[in-house]
Amino acid sequence: MALTIDLKGKIALVTGVTSGIGLGIAKMMAKAGCTVIGCAEQSETSDVAQRFLAEMESFDVLTDYFKADMVVTDDIDGLVSDITGDYGRLDILVSNVGQDVITGLENTTEKDWQFNLDLNLSAHWRLAKRCKSLLDGNNGIIIVMASNHAFASISGCTPYNIAKTTLTGLVRSLAIESGPGIRTIGIAPGFIDTSGNQQWFNSFIR
To answer: The domain that contains 88 carries what CATH number?
Structure first.
């Protein structure tokens, strides 16, 4: 028997929806009937944002898009404020946004280190904290996108693997301290066929 996912009547926020895993998640949620609020760092009028909205039209569900850079605290605050004003609640938060910061232990600069922690760790904490009031009372779900690098990495993947390892600790803390009213799930995918991963794979070709 085929698995049927029914998310009709649910409202989800998915970060990083203009490409890769975030776009795939947004499509699957829309296919299941979910209202999808997407965000990414690009403006609402950008080609990638408009392409996202165009692709979502085929699912015949309400779709929205907001510009929000997850390393900018004011952007996160503005995003949550807009969702509060326009929708009043969330049922699902998919904290997906992230970026491979893979420079290796010796070559990692202070700037690399800080950007990696801000985007791949702190942004998830800030967003989950600010969305808590929107998720409370709705049997809300937080899905945090970790990585296989949290469990089995390879040489040269510092500092990305460090942030993703620490992110699993955040998932546990959110599950303990936000439950049982809000469930928190951490997903650690392996290598996915995205342009970002392909660029990294190509770096091994000499």
So the answer is: 3.40.50.720
